């Protein structure tokens, strides 16, 4: 007897045998009715094993309605709120997209989780959107959840499990019944820990239907989670990753189930993927910025968009063959630093239909920190930088107090300090000068890993024998943002304050050296620093800035006068400091 005939016979018999209350008699759990041979008085020559079906009655509807109240519709890959979300052009990101799709469809893969990490604006969400659409076309997309910090309905972990369970329920009526029954048994399940929710609403129901009876109706198996870093609660991110690791990847789920997570390399996922983390060796990790060079893709993206702009504008200059020219496109590619958000933001600004694309492109190319452009061409990029830096600054202040200085000031000082090569590498000198040794460099960038990376420098070792470390910027435009008061807004730190910090550290290091009888190497470092020449060239010496702490000036004069090696510096700086001291009186 076929399964279809079995269901038809079961429904007819059930309908004839309903009691006056309208419900079939059953001793099974709510919403589930066991198959019984007494339902088939004329049937013979077949055997029914452990078979369950869901009764689509009132209690099932209650579970479904309760589930829907906890779903985040905006988080679906094809939600109305995400209309026209960015995705990859057909000839861009081909390598990484192929690698991801191959991993998803490879039933023999030793890992069931893929973590794609990359800098802010690298195009991770566009890749996720592209993969989601391809999986949907192949009918293998089980569920998707796109976080967004700007959308309160999907900026936390609370709706994640319900939203995934909802999509799984749509893929299988039987699974829908099991999920709804679970909700009815425990209507407060959505208030429980994420691990409990995942086990109750996803892992256990899916495991129940993985029997030979349902082998001919396989479930879609790709679960996609984008923008984990956009979740407002860091502890929530950790809890979600742990729930995925402990429950979704358990033996109760079919081996071909795959979870694809995309995120900036912020603390939660960065730590989980480290050698001591719980996802290390358990997840397939693609480091987008290291594994794939995006420059050629960005170049193709720009040329295609420029051709579209030229075909739509009325400005004849943009219709000239070859506009805007290879040189201009290459400048934009360099400025993008491998981050698609810069290219996309630039194109969006240039393509404003009420303005000339040629004039707007010129404004972008000729822009320099401090240059005012009323229409703010980098608004989207600035918002991204501001959000990341604000949160990181608050966390750094809470951790370090005022001992380490303001986060933005330190970052700008790191970029300001001239190269130095007397006895140590440039990178070691900068970290020592800014007192960022002994793990403080890691603390500094803990919440900035989507903008800045700490890289080990081959060939240079510290006194402890470890490879020296340096800061590496993913975004060339990041310091442009920091140096522009219009773009940085309330995060802007005047250059005079950066100089004040650097000079104060100069005084501090020289004073420490004087007290510890290590004055000669300290003065050598100070004279090699070239700070005075640098400050004079940039015309940013601010006497008013130092008048508030004349004792530091007097201390420096005493130190400089105490050693012959300092006479050149003293001759250069003494008149300036003496004048400063006199003007203070």
Automatic annotation (TrEMBL):
User: Per UniProt, which keywords does this protein have?
Assistant: Repeat
Q: Does the UniProt entry include the keyword Repeat?
A: yes
Q: Which InterPro entries match?
A: NPHP3-like_N, P-loop_NTPase
Give a single Pfam family match: NPHP3_N
The record's SUPFAM superfamilies line, in alphabetical order, gives:
P-loop containing nucleoside triphosphate hydrolases
The domain of life is Eukaryota
Amino acid composition bias (Polar residues), ranges on this chain: 22-34
Q: Where is the composition biased (Basic and acidic residues)?
A: 1-21
Nephrocystin 3-like N-terminal domain ranges (all copies): 98-264
Q: Where is this region: Disordered?
A: 1-34
Q: What is this protein called?
A: Nephrocystin 3-like N-terminal domain-containing protein
